[in-house]
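User: I'm writing a short report section on ligand binding and want a predicted complex to refer to. Could you take this sequence and S-adenosylmethionine and write out the structure as tokens? A short remark afterwards would be nice.
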Amino acid sequence: MGRTATRRSKKINVVYADHLKEIIDLRRWLSKYGWSNVTKLKLAKFPDTDRGVMSSKRFKKGDTIIAIPLDLMITYKTVSKGLTEILSLSDVSLEIHDLLTLFLVTERCKEQSLWSEYINSLPQNSPPLPWLASPEELNSYPADLQIISERKRKNLEESLYRTKRSIKKHPDCVLDEDLFKWGYVLVNTRAVYIHPDFVRITNENMNDALADEPTMALCPFLDMFNHHFQALTESEVVYREGQWFYQLKTLTGTNKYDQIFISYGAHDNIKLLMEYGFFLADNKLDTVKFGLEEVLKIAGVNVDSRQYKFIKDHNFDNSEDLYIGYEGISFNLKAVLFVICNAEVKNFNYVVFGNFPDDFLKYLPQYTKKLLFYKKSSF
Ligand SMILES: C[S@@+](CC[C@H](N)C(=O)[O-])C[C@H]1O[C@@H](n2cnc3c(N)ncnc32)[C@H](O)[C@@H]1O
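Assistant: Sure. The structure tokens for the complex follow:
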């Protein structure tokens, strides 16, 4: 079989990606700077997820899947050294996301960069995030997605504005808005969490005026793992044989040739779609969220000031917490439904933080159905 051979694993066709020039170069570059692929990781294109990671090795619970030398990561230390020509970090107040974006973009613009093998291995276009769509398309989204889209676009615009204002000298391409957008989105979809103490102990310039904690970092190859809500891995920074490594351990084990997933967090499908540009058909963490006004409309009731105050005082109107999930109705939604449907009850605290009455619980499946039908019909 040639380099483009496909393999049938659990009836799934995967196409290896290790023969591609950008991946050969990436692997060479990683090994030149101290990465050894002892766990036989391979990159492949999977039908459901596109490019991801697999191994010809089986992992047991607790095994290390990958360990990347810290020197190969783009951390605050890397950017604070690499950006000195174009900005003075002690004079500006940028966030770590801004700095990683600026670093990626400036390195991509250079004819020769120490990071070009890494940058060439990245998707050359942004993933299809819904909030990057045209204003006409955004107008056709459901209201909740429009609100998130607006917030995300505003964050991107503010990052670009802060960054442009801070640059004292720059190659022209750094101000290219599409390129900045590419870098910003890639940082958002690929950065890993690193404890700021590790960044501090390895960086003498930590007095710089960073506007937030340097908890984001880019990690070549480790950023090739796709997400699954059931994946359980643990990341840690370890010191071995005179070198720091960022490593991932599996807490479940994986089979040979299966795609190896990590979890990007306990995200429902809206979060996955808006942050990463995909969703999972069987996502058990998925929820259907409601706003207080929507719940009132569906229930067809008006509330008096005492009911409204109770809901507000306990933050029960936060739409992040008003949802129906695989496990049923959330506590906050249950509390809101009880309060809005029982104006005559004197002491809401007693019921909501005690026991809901049986006759209310009996009708809960009906309320749930009504809420879900309404939501479905509103699309
Ligand atoms: C950290 S990267 C993972 C590697 C990426 N697939 C690649 O080829 O570079 C995150 C991006 O991968 C894709 N992704 C991750 N998990 C996925 C999944 N379960 N299904 C589909 N796409 C996924 C999304 O485009 C996401 O923005």
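A remark for your report: The pocket of S-adenosylmethionine is lined by residues 49-52, 123, 127, 189-190, 223-224, 226-228, 276-278, 280 (CB under 6 Å). Residues 1-9 have pLDDT under 50 and may be disordered.
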